[in-house]
Automatic annotation (TrEMBL):
Catalytic activity, EC: 2.7.1.12
UniProt-recorded name of the protein: gluconokinase
InterPro entries linked to this entry: Cell-binding_unc_protein (IPR052732), Kinase-like_dom_sf (IPR011009), P-loop_NTPase (IPR027417), Therm_gnt_kin (IPR006001)
A Pfam family matched in the record: AAA_33
Region span, Disordered: 488-509
Pathway: Carbohydrate acid metabolism
Biased composition (Polar residues): 499-509
Enzyme type, top EC level: transferase
Catalytic activity: D-gluconate + ATP = 6-phospho-D-gluconate + ADP + H(+)
Organism: Nostoc favosum CHAB5714
PANTHER family the record matches: GLUCONOKINASE (PTHR43883:SF1), SLR0207 PROTEIN (PTHR43883)
Top-rank taxon: Bacteria
Amino acid sequence: MTEATLPALIQQMLQPEFYPHSVTEPIQLIQTHISYVLLTGDYVYKVKKPMNFGFLDFSTLEKRQHFCQEELRLNQRGAGELYLEVLPITLLGEQYQLGGTVEAVEYVLKMRQFPQESLLSTLFEQGKLNETHLDELGRVVAQYHAEAQTNDYIRSFGEVPKVRAAFDENYQQTEKYIGGPQTQAQFTETKQYTDKFFTERPELFASRIHNNYIRECHGDLHLRNIALWHDKILLFDCIEFNEPFRFVDVMYDVAFTVMDLEARQRKDLGNAFLNAYIEQTGDWEGLQVLPLYLSRQAYVRAKVTSFLLDDPSVPATVKEEATKTAAEYYKQAWDYTKPKLGEVILMSGLSGSGKSTTARHLARQMGAIHLRSDAVRKHLGGISLWEKGGDDLYTPEMTEKTYTRLLELGIILAKQGFSVILDAKYDRQQLRQEAIAQATKHQLSLQIIQCTAPLEVIKERLNNRTGDIADATADLLASQIKQAEPFTEEEQPYVKILDTTQPQQAQLK
């Protein structure tokens, strides 16, 4: 669209004199299919297009005003620093004005402009996005969800027919791409998987509703909608225009970010984010719906990319690239539905022996769920992960509860095809034998990794430990050594001894 064919308002908004503040020239215009976005230097102005796509309706001035206000309200949650105000635009003669006292002819959302280099997608492309960022993102998204609203109306969107409707619509809208970027086998098998999931697991969806995991979420949580600005992670541009896209299971949001990282061939970063998130929330059971939503998010990306193939104005080279990208997303959506073999790994060893470091390393390599007893214990005790536990958290009864819950979660998830690392001392034969018995009963592979290091190294690690949720200190070592029970002959075949002062790669083969 040339400047001459733009609406008169947008033409005037491209002129510096339109604004009551200085601007960086030339003013940049970015168009999406639903809005005009003007970058002026310090501020961004967003005008909604008068469109009605069914799932989105901006066709009247009242609706555009309403959705500008909604966009401001909802994005205050994750990026209050960026979203400033909704302003009326008035018309005097042929001159549009920002603000003004006469009746508004349009509404505009005013935001603070930040550099594109702050986007997580840009940081990723520059090779600057690391595991520490993803750990922090996990904690930020967990807090965002903890504060997100829920009520009976919002929870109703977690009912199977409502959740399923979006999946069925995706399949209907993509049948025509079979034989193009989508294959018949992938289409059939992906749909069979989701149909079966909805039919066979109604109790899982009911438990998500009952436990308040259907909330007013972000709805579009990929790397291009997350920024790291002024050392703070901001979640912006959430879905304001469509309730079913926003009133969703928290795992829907989590799946978007994980899928995006995995599509970029960085499963390790997706794993870091996922483990940080679930450790913070304690929502390990929620992982049971994760494969469903991972498949859905990849499928939506495939679908939206496929739509480009129908647009006569899109050049052939772009269509060729879109076909390739869509095909990769369709395959990714299908991959998530394939059955996987779950396994259980028990970490064992003294506090400070390197169990958690080893477990974290293994989790990234294997895409495993890392379940730390420290986190499970604190969730059971109802205290923050970063709060030091009192004596009541470390009674024999509480320890028994912690190990019971740890194993219960491990078995639930391994049966669903997850690799699960149970990170605890596992210093007593009874605890290890119970895990072996459960794994055997459910025909799951089990391994025990015994972490060792010289005592002086362990003491030094414990004395230097900071910024971790574990409460153990060096003065507990003597009693731990005394209480530890040796591996029995029956346990030996499961055990791999690991010296954590030596390189791990060769030892873990």
